Amino acid sequence: MLTVVGLGPVDPEIVQPVLGPQIRFIDAPSHADLAEASGAIVRAAYVVGVDQLDAMPHLKVIARTGVGTELVDVAAAALRNIPVLITPGSNTNAVAEGVFAQTLHLVKRLGPLTQIVAQGRWSERTNYPVHDVEDATIGIVGYGRIGRRVAEIASAFGMRVLAFDPYADIPAERRVADLAELAQRSNVITLHVPLTEETRHMVNADFLDAMPPGAVLINCGRGPLLELEAAHAALISGHLGGLGLDVFDEEPPAFHPIFSHENVVLTPHVMGLSINATRETFRQAANGVKDVLEGRPAPHQVLP
């Protein structure tokens, strides 16, 4: 019987029925289990490098839950003819809803207004102007699955939608020429691009200065897309109206003074981990592993 192991918390009640009776799933593998493993389902925070690959000499496939592979040595796996799979689309809606959870929190000033009520400062309630997203413009950086879903939700809220992505087919009425134009024309900006050398710190002081005063920035993509010190300075000056972060340069992050700003909302990289999204991610990962182990083409394989 073939063995598939879970690296990080993976729900066997979802995975085992997908794998079927001929493949055994082990969610807390021992060293001996790893040595026998033909497949691995890997959670986002789990590192798979050369040492981990050495511990699994019979491994034939790795399925990563999610789409990021920064913590998986894809090149080392390729040298061993081990395909690395991802699960695109499994958490698209969850992340897009997370963008709007953070956006509404900031636009409606829920953080400081909660404190006003809790601290008995009712007379100060008009000191924090509350805005609407209707008729505002949202700028989407990256028009893939998540970016397109954000656009759909934004349209339902009555927002104008702009998008920048040199690799995507964007409707003409939404397409902008470059990031500078997107920054200048957007009241809310949300980031949905992969982390590359080109996109690292794409949101820097110049980008933030180009945004309209009081605009809101949301990053549920990758932490290093944003230059945190520049965002902190923009918040302190009052130019940046709000900042939502679900991702960070290092996770978990060390404390930063920006975390205490009243116009910041923070979540610990969980906007894509809703109950429904997590279940779908496990199902897709298990299906991918099963396909490879049973000789079918590897779905959604990442190339080194």
The tally of beta strands, per DSSP, is: 12
H/E element string?
EHEHEHEHEHHEHEHEHEHEEHE
Figure out the total of helices. Answer: 11
Please mark out the parts with pLDDT under 50 across 5 or more consecutive residues, or reply none. Answer: none
Number of domains: 2
CATH superfamily of the largest domain: NAD(P)-binding Rossmann-like Domain
Query: Could you say what the CATH architecture of the largest domain is?
Result: 3-Layer(aba) Sandwich
Structural class: alpha/beta
Question: What value does the Rg take, in angstroms?
Answer: 21 Å
Binned, the helix content reads: 25-40%
Morphology call: elongated
Q: Could you tell me the mean pLDDT?
A: 97
The level-1 CATH class of the largest domain: Alpha Beta
Multimeric status of the protein: single chain
Distance between termini?
30 Å
What CATH calls the topology of the largest domain is: Rossmann fold
How much of the residues is beta strand, in percent? 15-25%
Across the major sheet, the strand order is 2-1-3-4-5-12
Report the major sheet: 6 strands, mixed
Keywords: NAD, Oxidoreductase
GO molecular function: (S)-2-hydroxyglutarate dehydrogenase activity; NAD binding; phosphoglycerate dehydrogenase activity
Protein name: Phosphoglycerate dehydrogenase-like enzyme
Family: Belongs to the D-isomer specific 2-hydroxyacid dehydrogenase family.
